[in-house]
Amino acid sequence: EDGIRDKLVTGVQTCALPISGSHRLQLTPTTSGCASSRAVTPSMARVEAAMARILIAEDEEPVRALIARALTDDGHEVSVAADGAEALDILKREEGRFDLLLTDIKMPIMDGLALALAVARDHTRIPIVLMTGYADQRERAYGLDALICDIISKPFSLPELKFAVAAALATGKR
Question: What's the predicted TM-score (pTM) here?
Answer without folding.
Answer: 0.70
